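Protocol step 4 of 6: structure prediction from sequence.
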Amino acid sequence: MAARIDIYQGRAPEDLPAYALPRAAGILRLSPSTLRLWATGGDGSALFKAARRSPLSLSFSNLIEAFVLASMRRVHGVSMQRVRKALRYVGKELGYDRPLVHAGFQTDGVELFVVHAGRLLAVSAEGQTVLREALDTSLTRIEWQGDFAARLYPWVRGTPDPRQPKTVVVDPRLGFGQPVMAGTGIETRVVVSRYRAGESAAVLAEDYGVDIERIDDAIRCEVGEAA
């Protein structure tokens, strides 16, 4: 496994507790209660290890884990309580402690997970196909640098669609890990602050030198309702 940069109090930027629970839930379009359950596990069966437990805060790597898990959640019949066992199996087979944040998951890992899910989770053949498609679609929103996830392009327009443009990006090394308009470095919450103050999308687009579509997506990123 590739060596990771050891900075910021012994942690790489992607592992810092940069997102309070409500902020992380908003970026991912999940309810805070769902995300809390995944991160803590009411019965000790957390789906991933939160960067900080008290107060609960997530890292960029946690965002990636939750983002991929959300794609599984949308597939009928896949039990989140048992997904953890399937992921443990995949991690053991591939030699990764956290398979969802490793580039290997998008290749051999997805296939291993889907096949194992068919046995462990009793997912039908049709369900396995849907699960594979959901995972493949979500993984196209992640950029990898070496072995690990480096950037996330969250869904900002309703139902996930592979044709949805990558207009908003989350990069732990850019804008302190907050969502920014892709290609600009301008935080989406800054855009929304100006919009709420009365400036039109057209004016903002002209000021920032981007098309209105990017401004609209920046606003959606900040005000979109949880799924």
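Step 5 (inspection) to follow. The beta strands are 19-20, 57-58, 142-145, 148-152, 168-169, 180-181.
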